[in-house]
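User: ok so my PI wants both of these folded by tonight, can you help

Assistant: No problem, let's get them done. Here's the first:
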Amino acid sequence: MRSCVVLCLLIFMFVITAEGTIRRVPQDYAKIQLAINASIDGDTVLVSEGTYFENLVLIKKIVLGSYFIIDRDTSHISKTVIDGSTPRHPDSASVILITTGTDSTTVISGFTLRRGSGTRVFDSWWNQHWRCGGGIVLLAGGARIANNIIANNTLITSDAVVGGGIHVWTQEGPIPFWIIEDNKIINNNIRSTSVEAEGGAVHLTEQGRFNNNVVMNNSVAGVNYGHAGGIWITSALGYGSTYIELSNNYICGNTASHSGGGMLAAMNGASGELTTTILTNNVFCNNSSSTGGAAIQFQSGIHTLINNTLANNNGPNTVRVFSTIGALVMRMLNNILWNPSVSSEYVVGSGTYTRTRYSNYNCVRTGLTGTNNITGDPIFMSGDTLYRLSQNSPCIGTGISSDVLGGETWFAPPFDFLKTPRPNPVGSIPDIGALEHTLGVPTDVDENKSYPFEFGLSQNYPNPFNPSTIIKYSVPVSAGANNHSSVQLKVFDILGREVATLVNE
């Protein structure tokens, strides 16, 4: 019989207010765009539940949100719908267009964005028109796009087409930084009837974070080629190198008529600017492509994969790499590649530039050279859509907390896909894959939750905020014990000066 100490999570919430006007729709403004037009930087446009047939243009540093940003009730998201199916002009048919005047303090949160058909732009680099961004198109500036459902946007055209759900591109100016997190990007479809199509769900470039998203059942097809049923990543033309972190994403059931069923990351041949990606704790499953890279295809650049699970994808191979545009560096640590329907899990394609791979502590069905890689069946839990490990899996306790890959030390993420501490239990050896096995956790504890073993201060939400934000902190207390924790919570300005004490007890 196992004994354990059950921990209770004490959560405290405080609200900090800031200057700025709240503009309510439809109470104060009949249309969302009217509220946006009346706003100045720092304002909040707060939208009540309902369906709004609008195609919005956003050029300000404001918060655009449903009542989700007030009470965090996720039911607001599906009930606050912006429908882009009735644009004033068919070439301006994205649900939301973001351009100059914005930055990462521009927030879009708590909506369902649907039935957009994209914005048509001319790209002088390629000397052709593109239709892009059915749900959101970000052409300059920046934004934080969080806690939205971006679904059922369809882009079918004879033009080149890209980014069914979200399109990030430096069409009208640089994009210093963007954040896309906690969204469901599902059932978006793009197709070109004459040329190429790329990124059924999203197209990303420049600098940003793509975290905690569900990217599911999106598709891409084109005549010349159809790349990246889920995520398409490229370097920016003329705006410098691209660096993108992708963590804790569930990328499942996406299809590409050519390569990169789940994702494709490439350097841009027209500019040669470097593309760097870091992938941690992602699950790629049930994606498909016809020509290669059923889960992922990399075309030059520097790419690091740590504690990802790539399972049950369908196509000629799971991961395919090229060095046709520039040098390729691959780092792989603690990953599972287990896709029985493919002929090979990792394939090196053409290219005259150097190709270097460092791969340690991975589980790869068809084998992989490196240190401590294994080929045994990971033995996933039967019927589990997250591909968690069964208790007799050879991937349990056979990973590593840190290792040197190509002269650099890389670390396993401290938490797994479900925010369970890694390793689990603390002090053991990490597992291979995106999810730590929960063997050893008391059976009366919900395995989908993480429990605090120390004081914790969570990220405030919303952030950036206007006019208020919620700060949560947690204190672990042994059940049944008469313990008390002394807590101080203070706010400091950017110069390090104390401006407020919120808690001292």
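One down. Here's the second:
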Amino acid sequence: KSDSALQVHFIPLSPQKRNNLYIDSVWFDSPIVQQNIAQICHVKMVNDADQDIENQPVKLIINGIQKGLASISIKARQSAESAISFTITETGWQSGEISITDYPVVFDDRYFFSFEVAKNLQVLSMNGEGESSNLNALFGKDAYFSFQNIPLGRIDYSSFSQFQLIILNEIPNISSGLAQELQKFVSNGGSILVFPSAKTDLNSYNSFLHALGANGLGALISSDDKISGLEFDHEIFRDVFEKEKLKKENMDLPLVKKHFAMESAGPNTREVLLSLQSGQAFLTKYESGKGKVYLFAVPLQSDYSNFARHAVFVPILYKMALLSKKTYPLSYALGKNEVIEYDQTTSGEKVFHLKREKSNFDIIPEHRVDNNGGKTILYLHDRILHAGPYSLTNGSAPLAIFSFNYNRKESALTCYSIEEIEADIKKSGKLKMDALDLQGKEFKQAIMQISEGIRLWKWCILLALLFLAAEIALVRFWKK
């Protein structure tokens, strides 16, 4: 509450020098890092100084081994980005670090991050009309994918949580029980790929799709068409096609003989990834809960389209599968009371421990088990105080590595000016506040002036002596 008797004075303290170079953020080209495949690490740095920086070395270290080196030049009071290429040769969790050398502020010269290189990716195909030879050729013969085919009548709902991508391959009817389990799967971060059946029950399909926040299917259109539009900037097509080259050339795209119409009006999360010359959507994507839904307008049968035999079939489905992999943030910020969702649960006497590498730090974080989603939610309550990688264990073996960094807002040494502080004070309009401008005065002198006012006794003595001297001079000269 406002107190009229209270006077608050803000005393700005400005540093003599504001020179600092710091690492602002780190990210990868692709959210999925694969074994023995080149990856690009991007680094954003900020030069919070009055001088330009030329050819500053930047090191990339993974698991204690230097994996890359780059140099970066940054103008004064600006930021710049650098890219470092690296390759991981082993699977499992990796601990990374970006490092620079800068004085005098050094706490933000290291940026820690961690990521997982998975051994394989779990894909399930639920088949209504039998197995697809195209899906078997794509996923079944690639060692990176653990691919399973299951007939519609033998589905085990409890196993859904172990898969990252579920393919609905020409299922005629989606029962309410299956729809409910798939909704739970998507809300927990899973991805669904839907190829409708030639015998599709539109009512059951649309009820299922609408519950996921997706557009439904319409009537079958039996007319020749062709895919003409690709959303090149989408992450599925990124690094798949040479966009500039395709603009100059007439790209050979799949032909469509008949397809299901798709509802056009619907949720804001709809993205049309492939479209037909007629303006109809051929492939759409939706964000639903924490997961994704991909919907095709045709089955994989050749009498509907030649998509399954076309060259674009492999990279599109391959990228869909890769992007369905659960990913964690590369790092977390200290002081934000972060919450971590880990895709495993624990039972019995075993509990989760969070340990800092090369130190005695070991805590048991508060956690809540979500059995429906097959995950554990860890609450840290600001107990992590130092930047670096921390191992999550359940017994002796590490399960995951999570990295923490100091908040990058602490790296910006810019201070408010007195004018900016006074402007904010005027906006508040509640307490009696002002900004104290020392203007070369000592701190003690300024405080005494506030508490005691301006002391004028010295001026009074000086004036008294002057007047006395004037009076003596007047008396002497007046007699003469």
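The mean pLDDT is 86. The chain is about 20% helix and 35% strand. Good luck tonight!
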